[in-house]
Amino acid sequence: MIKVLISGAAGRMGQESCRAVWRAQDMILAGAVDTARAGENLGKVIAVEDVDLTVQNNLETALKEIKPDVMVDFTNPEAVFNNVKIALQNNVRPVVGTTGMNTEEIAYLKELARKQGLGGLIAPNFAIGALLMIKFASMAVKYFPHVEIIELHHDQKMDAPSGTALKTAEAMAAVRGSLRQGLPTEYEKIDGVRGGDFEGMRIHSVRLPGHVAHQEVIFGGTGQTLTIRHDSISRESFMPGLLMGIRKVMDIDELVYGLENLIFE
Asked: Of the candidates 103, 167, 99, 107, which has an alpha carbon nearest to the alpha carbon of residue 137?
């Protein structure tokens, strides 16, 4: 049985993660941390009567007391780096769905995991369909190098662009390199209207109520276009990938960036 602690347990993704781990036959929901709901009964927070745990306030204290095998983190961009560092320092494998860490922070955590001999996972997206979208996009860009990304999320998401959009752009850039797209003399009448620029690709972020997580990768070619789209209709879409990630990190001794690197190899 894999002992799992959820950090950010009272958030929307945290609650869904608690329920998924609790249902998994090979896992134990061993602990929950969330500063916003500390002291409350987790069963009431996630609406599962059979769960009898108290939401704790301090991550490091909880890790030392519970000694879980895995810490799942769905907190926020300001807290995630320190949370993962604390987990690794306490010999706990991190599985991270929180986005917002930069390349230097990820590199630091990878080195720390190497020194500790611990497996871990940082996953911009746990939805299997989203991972296939990235894989298909990296295949298509070889033939359609002119491409833009539109990602759409709920209006409570803190960071933009999404981690999935960045991961998609990185995967395509690894195939096609940097390329200047569009008219060289184009200009913006409204600042930012053409979106962010990543190696010549434009990334556009939409934030509106009613959305969960959606992305289009639009390719343009001579006389034709190709669109690859993925939609997460509910947060349940991320749970099969999350559980897969928890299981996978038990058998590796490094911190991996991207669930696709564990399931498509």
From this structure: 167
